[in-house]
Write a structure and sequence with these properties.
mainly alpha; two-stranded antiparallel ribbon; 6 strands; globular
Length: about 220
């Protein structure tokens, strides 16, 4: 019975991870992103599903899952055995989803400026930007990630899901590894300014992770 319950949750979990970002992206490329920003993907950026490059959808799935898992890892470290109780309260789920969104956003501040520089997509109707990327894009990323993980966490609440300890222990290393790669990509393919500015924005998450990892090694 428990096995069937976990399978059902996994199916819904994956559907949420794929469908919600896809819907938001589809609306964005056809009707515009937050703050009135319009954007278009390069037609040669293949393969595509309804005008959305498949790799973009896969990145959404990967980054949102990492954001969701890293938040779980951070809060489990601080609250230990009480974390599952935290997950059972609606207001806490909202707060956790907001942090999920910020973690996902820390990937985009590296990626988007490099992608725009190489013409993978272009933007219209914007005034304020971060290395050529409109602020509306980052607002959009935050909304998509937060909304998606809010559904994921609500699903966890419905199914009384227990957090996977192996994932909790490994996900900080995954996050640091990916950020390390994105830092060097932005450094060599865009500018030193982008690389270090993005790293500074990520610093609150990095500091928490490093404290967590230092304590683990110490113990």
């Amino acid at each position: 019975m428990t096995s069937n319950k976990n399978i059902i949750r996994l199916v819904f979990f994956l559907l949420i991870l794929f469908i919600i970002p896809f819907v938001f992206e589809y609306v964005g490329i056809n009707f515009g992103a937050p703050l009135g920003v319009r954007y278009f993907y390069l037609k040669e950026f293949l393969p595509q599903i309804f005008g959305l490059p498949l790799v973009i959808l896969l990145l959404w799935v990967i980054f949102i899952y990492i954001g969701y898992s890293l938040t779980n890892s951070i809060f489990t470290y601080f609250f230990k055995e009480n974390y599952n109780e935290i997950l059972k309260k609606n207001l806490n789920i909202i707060f956790l989803s907001l942090l999920d969104g910020f973690i996902v956003l820390t990937f985009d501040i590296f990626i988007d400026p490099v992608a725009v520089k190489f013409g993978l997509w272009r933007w219209e109707n914007f005034f304020f930007s971060y290395f050529g990327v409109p602020i509306g894009n980052f607002v959009g990323w935050y909304i998509i990630a937060t909304t998606t993980t809010l559904f994921l966490r609500s699903l966890d609440l419905i199914f009384s899901f227990e957090i996977n300890k192996k994932c909790l222990n490994s996900i900080p290393y995954v996050y640091i590894f990916i950020e390390f790669i994105l830092f060097f990509i932005s450094f060599f393919l865009h500018s030193i300014d982008l690389a270090f500015m993005s790293l500074i924005i990520c610093s609150p998450i990095n500091i928490i992770i490093l404290i967590k990892l230092f304590e683990r090694v110490k113990n």
